[in-house]
What does this fold into?
Amino acid sequence: MKENQIRLPNSFELFMVMGLFLAIMYFSLAVLQLPIHLALLAVWFVLIFLGLRLGHTYDNLQKSIVTGIFTGLEAVLIIIFVGTLIGAWIAGGVVPTLIYFGLQIIHPSIFLLATLLICALTSLATGTSWGTAGTAGIAMMGIGESFGLPLPLVAGAVISGAYFGDKLSPMSDSTVMTASLAKVDLLAHVRSMLFVSFPALIISGLMFLVAGFFFTRRGNDIGLVTDNIQALSANFNVSWYMLIPMVVVLVMLAKGVPAMLTLAFGSVLGVVWATIFQGIDVISAIHTLYSGFVIESGIPFVDLLFNRGGIESMLGVIAIMILALGLGGLMDHLGILTVLTITLAKWVTNAGRLTSSTIFAAFLGNFFGSAGYVSLITGCKVTEKSYDDLKIDRRVLSRNMETGGILTAPLVPWADNGIYMAAVLGVSTMSYLPFAWLNLIGLAIALFYGFSGKFIWYTEDTEEEVKEDRGNKVVLEEKMEQPIS
It folds into this structure.
């Protein structure tokens, strides 16, 4: 039997698939209110149908799904251990102690700004937005709830701070990967990112400060805060040494210990602390790693906030991530990235269009590839040649890659970052999206630079200097070869 000839999708097929993707997601989630799992499965079969139309065999399409899932299994494993960490740290009194001290120290009017800065410093020190949200972020959500602040707004402050540091820390895997893909020195990339990140931090900080005063004026029940502090001390042993597991985990992350090992060790410490300091028997403490922490205090604040964690709580999240990774594998196998590269290359004629194209291509990596690392690849591979053609320095490429890829990563409900943040913070992606102010402002600043020409560096002068240096070197070598008279 003659084999089918495999071809790339044409522009019509590409935009048709993108339109169907958006329609399925919208009607499934917004209109029919179906689980996102079913929407992703439906999109699978749309892409499989397209693949068969393009000449691919079903067996190869299924293999591409498996390959996509395999490439993202590390993130799945991390989510499993995040579940164990949350359950064990609640049982061990780590999270309750963080919230207890936070309620005593931070005033409600500056809480949102403090959340932004605390999460920014934590992510800078550790290089991980996921680790920041899973530690300091959880505590900030609990404090914010006690202050009576809208939880999506608090989550926006957590995410804004977490991704500020994630984009700048030399210890961040995304920062290192961005510099590597763009062929830019790591510190040069970080310096380039400062032009976007610091203005975004200042503007979003002012916005969170104003929002904090606004909600304080509307009236926060300080008496309720006092009641919650008493409830925490009545149900948990709270003391400074309860924070030792968190300090150990943050130090390990800052030292570059693999995330999975760090989270596993932190979970073990949580079990030990639960046994020694919280009076929980060993078997029950170990059970929190899978089933999460369970408490029936009769106090809504305590029961709603702390009945959570464990691997069991992450099973739905893991299923979403597996389906999303399979979707990314299909997209890659069908050559949709290649078609985008060809399409965008024809449109890019100046720095503004190139900036928007890079950000858009990186965003599509999250939207269709469902993973932050995919967004960096799409942002780079789709547009890198255009930077060289327009003689724009690759520091601009790396800055736009990380802005478009990492800042949008937590804003897509079915991408790995969006799934993780929603699960850990307990707020849906679409709820906190309007309040992820640093992320949104960062995108606007990068686009402004592109179309205004601000902080867009060109390589033409550099190339002339390199040619001159090479010429001088040749002359010097020729002189050295001449005999000394």
Remarks:
- Confidence is low (pLDDT under 50) at residues 461-485.
